[in-house]
Write a structure and sequence with these properties.
InterPro entries: Nitroreductase, Nitroreductase-like. The chain has nine helices and four strands. With 208 residues, the protein is an alpha+beta fold. The protein has one domain: 3-Layer(aba) Sandwich (NADH Oxidase).
Length: 208
């Protein structure tokens, strides 16, 4: 096995869901931005990247979130809470994304126009529930990538779905197209995370 593979395994197994963070530890905006820039290399449906991020570091805002998030300790003690928000109208970005791909030399004019036409025929006409499912799936991909990147940089995380999404959207005055999907607490662990086990692979895998 290559050294890269060994290093990847080390990060994967080291990442645990931490719930006790050092409340005095801060991570600057520049480093958080750098981690997000790396995380968005994650794949997404038709490359429409239906993720948006709201980075919350203000102490009072974290307290506000916690009032409708079951008073989870990590929300107030983490260096930042990163809200991963799904764009259910991701089709508004079709031209910008695909023409950028053309400008980068990743595709030719003929094929980019086919991609644009196909995407514009499919996504605006898809039911909201379908687009919501796409955004949710893609948010999971970028969230996992962000948590691994954070661990590789020496930070700790925990993903949280246990919060009132309607209250969150109202509190931050999100447009109706944007739906909060997951909160990621980011910081330095104040105590180790609990270990956890997994089901045996034979019990969850079938080869055909």
């Amino acid at each position: 096995m290559s050294q890269n593979y060994e290093e990847l395994l080390e990060v994967m197994h080291a990442r645990k869901s931490v719930r006790k963070f050092d409340p005095h530890y801060t991570i600057n905006k520049e480093e958080i931005t750098s981690m997000l820039e790396e995380a968005i290399s994650a794949p997404s449906s038709s490359n429409l990247q239906p993720w948006r991020f709201l980075v919350i570091q203000d102490r009072e805002l974290k307290k506000k979130i916690n009032r409708f998030s079951f008073n989870q300790e990590q929300i107030e003690t983490a260096s930042a809470i990163i809200a991963v928000i799904g764009d259910t109208e991701m089709y508004h970005n079709i031209d910008e994304i695909y023409l950028s791909n053309l400008a980068a030399g990743n595709i030719d004019e003929e094929h980019v126009q086919i991609q644009i036409q196909n995407a514009k025929a499919a996504y605006p006409n898809a039911p909201l529930e379908v687009r919501r499912n796409i955004a949710t799936f893609d948010a999971g991909l970028v969230s996992m990538q962000l948590m691994l990147i954070a661990k590789a940089r020496g930070y700790d995380t925990v993903p949280m779905g246990g919060f009132d999404k309607q209250q969150f959207a109202a509190s931050f005055e999100l447009e109706s197209r944007y739906e909060p999907l997951v909160l990621i607490a980011l910081g330095k662990a104040a105590s180790p995370a609990y270990g956890s086990t997994r089901l045996p692979i034979d019990s969850i895998t079938t080869y055909m």
